[in-house]
Write a structure and sequence with these properties.
Layout: E1 11-17, E2 26-31, E3 34-39, E4 42-47, E5 51-58, E6 68-74, E7 77-84, H1 88-91
Antiparallel strand pairs: 1-2, 2-3, 3-4, 5-6, 6-7
Length: about 100
């Protein structure tokens, strides 16, 4: 597999989304030792050992009947928010 920006051996899963029409794409990938993220001009790496809290939630909105949010709090980094309108990205099976 491809090397991650943090120097990890490989990427196991990757996900990207655009939160707004004019906003930058936000990309996340899991590597051997942490989460690599890229949000336009900002990017970084969070080692798994630095993750302090993780929240998975379901938050529908008026325009999106299905909206899943993953929030990651880690030492030394502001909260990362990963949003999807499909549950398939986080569990690997289609919504049924």
């Amino acid at each position: 597999m491809a090397d991650s920006p943090s120097g990890g051996k490989g990427n196991y899963a990757a996900y990207a989304y655009r939160p707004s029409v004019m906003g930058p794409i936000r990309a996340f990938s899991l590597s051997d030792d942490g989460i690599d993220w890229d949000a336009g001009a900002k990017s970084g790496h969070i080692p798994y050992r630095n993750i302090q809290r993780l929240r998975l939630s379901y938050r529908p909105t008026s325009m999106q009947s299905h909206r899943f949010v993953t929030e990651v709090w880690a030492e030394g980094v502001s909260k990362l928010e990963i949003i999807s309108t499909s549950s398939q990205w986080c569990k690997g099976t289609p919504r049924g």
